[in-house]
Design goal:
about 40% helix; about 160 residues; alpha+beta
Length: about 160
Amino acid sequence: MSVYQVVAECAHVTMDGPTGRAVNLLMKGAHVPADAPELKRLLADKFVAEVGKDDTGGVDAYGIPAGAYGADVPANLTTTPLEKSEEQRKAEAEAEANYRAAADLAEKRQAAKAKLPEDGSEPDGRAGQDVWVEYLVARGSMYEDVKDASKADLRKLAEQQS
């Protein structure tokens, strides 16, 4: 009996199960039933390889089926996900920096909100610029519109809104 295993990263295979026939996604090294309707196409497209004439099959330490060493697998199917391009590394670094900046801003804003009077009244005149920003945001101003204004301008705006 021939044994077939997936040699590409994955393959869709139709198999009979307890509830009927279903399409399954099989990962590298998985056995493919000999009666799978797609087997001929998968063999021709080098997604699957015959790995032996017995039931042992087997996958080595690298996840490559034992009988698949002679199989020609298209280059785009053998690329490992660990290889990252310079663009991917830069994009990940930029995303990490953006995430940290957003987390820092959220922490700063939360600290400023904690300093607001509980009754919703105007902050003390000694309160910092960030507290005045959060006061105006709570009253309906857009954060982006008031975040860079001076404390004096923020106090004037608060007076105009009263």
